[in-house]
Amino acid sequence: MTIMKRFIGFVKKEFYHIFRDKRSLFILFGMPIAQILLFGFAITNEINNVDIAILDQSNDIETQKIIYKIKASPYFNVANQIEKESDIESEFKKGKIKAVLIFEPNFSKNLETKKVAVVQAITDATEPNVANTIANYTSAIIQNYQSQKKQSNSNQVKVEVQSRMFYNPELKSVFNFVPGVMTVILMLVSAMMTSISITREKELGTMEILLVSPLKPFQVIIGKVFPYIFLSIINAIVILTLGYFVFKMPINGSIFLLAFESILFIISALSLGILISTVSNSQQTAMMLSLMGLMLPVIILSGFIFPINSMPLPMQVISNIIPAKWFIIIVKAIMLKGVGIQYIWKETLILIGMTVFFITLSIKKYKIRLE
Amino acid sequence: MEREKIISVKNLTKEFGHFTAVKGISFDVYKGEIFGFLGANGAGKTTAMKMLIGISNPTSGEANVAGFDVHSQADMVKKSIGYMSQKFSMYDDLTIKENITFFGGIYGLSRIEIKQKIAQLIEELELQEVANNLVGSLPLGWKQKLSFSVALLHEPKIVFLDEPTGGVDPITRRQFWEMIYTQAYKGTTIFVTTHYMDEAEYCDRVSIMVDGSIEALDTPKNLKEQFKVDSMNDVFLKLARNIE
Amino acid sequence: MKTILFIIQKEFKQIFRDKSMLQLIFILPILQLLILSNAATFDVKNIAITFVDNDQSRESRDLINAFKASTYFKVTAPHFSEKEAVEEMQKGKTDIIVNIPVHFNRDLQKDQKASISVSINAIDAATAGVENVYVTQILNSYNQNIQMQSKYFSENKEVPQNIMVIPSFWYNNTLNYKTFMVPGILVLLVTMLTLFLSSMNIVREKELGTLEQINVTPIKKYQFIIGKLFPFWVLGLVILTVGLVISKVVFNVPMLGNIFLVYGFTSVYLLLILGFGLYISNHTETQQQAMFIAWFFMVIFILMSGLFTPIESMPKWAQSLTLLNPIRYFVEFIRMVLLKGSGFYEVLPNLLIVTGFAVFVNGMAVWSYKKSN
Structural domains in chain A? Predict the structure, then answer.
């Protein structure tokens, strides 16, 4: 009983440590809000408003019509007309435009007499994604133009497609980014803050004092971690609320399941933080492992930005060890697909397994240190 | 004969917002003396000391240390003083030699001088065995003796010691005070804060701070007579009670 | 000058003392550059697609085969009902469902027109867009095929007009993502490492109490700061060098431009980042606070650098914000010089902006570093 009282006292002290400082508090809550708002509004992996240039060697009725179409599309922003092919190189090197469309001389005439006319789409492929998309969009616009022209003979045999966009009919990028940003924030805040705060006690020598106190080692650790669980849960709630009200992200599935999975993920990130703290002897080492070691892998390998299915096989295999990957799958499934636990039990089990693994390993490492 | 004043403080005040930590204190310290600066925790002694060593700017009043104004000539003051803080402040991840080299270097000693100092210090403190060990691995008592020696590297006129013996055993404390005496004998002025009242007996003169003001300043002997008690501890207790 | 040397000596000693730290400083960036560069690709491949063939005719099978022949798609076992297929999508086992209605073949023969429905998992909108384009492309070529065979075509001898779009991809004609990502990820790693280490550095001394000891010495502010930051500046350049070697040897990234230009720019850029780290360090009390702030800015810098998502697609206000993002300028710069061979005058705007920022940030940092309060 007295142990329990002491433990509660200790947890209170830890809370006090974190919440005493108004500035820290502002940072801990304000920064994730700022990030989710900023990224939600600003980031999209769609490609539009690309600056391109046009080299029109014909300047006839056909080319003008096509250029008009291109200018009207949201994808392109015709920045300038250039006069000769040799200017392309220097335009690209300045880095302002991403593509040049070249209409061959005698465009209309060729189309009339030879039945074929050529548009070259030269793209700056240092950004392959943008380059590829530009090429696709250009040919789509021109195909569209052509098919409008030959409306008359539309009784050709053909198969038509009716596409339906499941789960995200308006194709909003933010549906992909809200779960991603939430994961990055929870992962790093939990893992980084716990690992650094535990290592801090070691570095300043106060850990020894705590360990000789009547509190059991695991109570010390839980006491230190507890405020961060609380803090991460608040952050998760704030992010989901913003996603729901500001970005109109639906929560189609059970909100309790979502809460359970979020808490599970937070605990798994915290236990990773604890593991990091058992192998670090200074805050700098803890920072290197938790921040430098986790930040890019979580952003790149979790499926937050890059689709995992498209990665080379070895990368897909490696991505399995990133807890964030599983959490992103779970969040998307609950919020957008509206599914229940029967669809995501495997992912949930993996997260539980990882958490157990981190904790077991921490305890083992911890015992070795004490002996 | 008028003794030479090396520290002279007039109406020195430090405010933090509405809180006045140091309330217009005035005193002088003479060359070569061991000056004890006493007070309970939170009495303002560390704040006062930080103003004297030029890392805290006074709100008002003046202080002159080794002939320089602490506010406008802080860098000159810093050249003339040594400082040892209550928080052990050498680099745990450097060896004894490396720490000495670093602090010697930033006080402007040449590489040759540094080498001589290292040899001399290691000899005096009998650290031959551990000279290349990390400072972090030394027992606290050794660390404190080392800190004191490092504070004296550039042969300052005054050395400020902030609770130098906190947390060490009585034997080490004794040895530490012997080092202080040796240094004072060489002519260095010692300005020391402490809350061990028995240590106050070792000082030439002591001042006692209560709630930001200096309530008593004299030799330990005179103070004991004045308050009609046998020990500095009782002087202190009586003083604290009077204030309340 | 002499004093600065003593500080530099001490900082290097401390860096090299902690062997596990030293290993991490080198291993983490190298490992990440090697691994993550392979994963960062926007290529949409291996798309799991499934069919619900209600017609079971030769034509419907032809259509399915057209998809099977494409390298983009991975066709999974067919389903007999839409419901079953949707179930698969719920489980995340498939991303596209193509539903071929009953009478597909009959409609095609009778009405010259049949329709199929395609359902795409659109949670990742950009990927869904690309998948839709692929589906349309396959359908188009399927249509062309059946048109060629149709009666209509043989009766109308007239060749249709055709505007051909010939794409050509300069600087990277195979659309290799690694050429694009490796220099970018290298920039991120160099920035993260130097920012994190420098923002932790001075606050660490504050936390351990050694900073007070430094503050009572007559050392000048600029001496202390230069001495503190110089080792990280060197470290940044060393990591850059290792990264460039890996880029060349392992990933075969072209290096068309002048490599000295890269070093010149990086030298200035590192001053900017280190100054920023120092500024963070001055305004925090614990390493934990410093790390959290550094993390906050780093995530914003990374996601708004144009490396992973295009800047042009952002709303105007966000585009203006990226003008304050140092990583944006470095990513732009390194791509221009390495991949396009841009010269000094072409990258001058970037260099000038980064220099301006560096002067400003370091001014702020030195000004905010107070030896007394």
Answer: 15-43+171-370 (no CATH), 50-150 (3.40.1710.10)
Average pLDDT over residues C300-328: 89
Domains of chain C by residue range: 2-40+182-368, 47-155
Residues 324-343 of C with CB under 8 A from A: 332, 335-336, 339-343
From the CA of C79, how many Å to the nearest CA of chain A? Answer: 18
Helix, strand, coil content of chain B in percent (nearest 5): 40, 25, 30
Q: Which of B16, B55, B159 to mutate to test the interface with C (most CBs of C within 10 A)?
A: B55
Distances (CA, A) of C64 to A265, C108, C135, C136, C344: 40, 16, 11, 14, 54
Reported confidence tier of residue B63, pLDDT bands at 50, 70, 90: very high
Report the alpha-carbon distance of residue C143 to residue A154 in Å, rounded. Answer: 13
Whether residue C14 contacts residue C42, with contact meaning beta carbons closer than 8 Å, is answered with no
The model carries a pTM of 0.86
HEC readout, C255-271: CCCCHHHHHHHHHHHHH
Identity of the highest mean pLDDT range in C70-84, C98-112, C269-283 = C269-283
Closest CA to C288 of A248, B182, A85, A28: A28
pLDDT in tens, C213-253: 888 888 888 888 899 899 999 999 999 999 999 999 999 99
| Nearest-by-Cβ selection for C213 from B74, B89, B105 | B89
**Residues A175, A73: Cα–Cα separation, whole Å:** 24
Across the interface, of C166, C309, C315, the residue whose CB is closest to A118 is C166
The closest CB to that of B93, out of C18, C218, C372, belongs to C18
ipTM score above 0.95: no
Name every residue whose Cβ is closer than 8 Å to that of residue A367 and which is 6 or more positions away in sequence: none
Rounded-to-integer distance, Cα A182 and Cα A234, Å:
12
For A34, the token pair is 């700022």
Say which DSSP state B95 is in.
B
Chains contacting C (3 or more CB pairs within 8 Å): A, B
Determine whether domain C47-155 maps to CATH 1.10.287.470. no
Strand order in the sheet with B81-84: B81-84, B158-162, B189-194, B34-39, B205-210, B213-218
Among candidate residues C149, C118, C123, the one with its CA nearest the CA of residue C133 = C118
Q: What is the mean pLDDT of residues B49-74?
A: 90
Q: Can you tell me the distance from the alpha carbon of B35 to that of B189, in angstroms, rounded to the nearest whole number?
A: 8
Token pair 């004490």: residue: A370
Domains along chain B with CATH numbers: 5-243 (3.40.50.300)
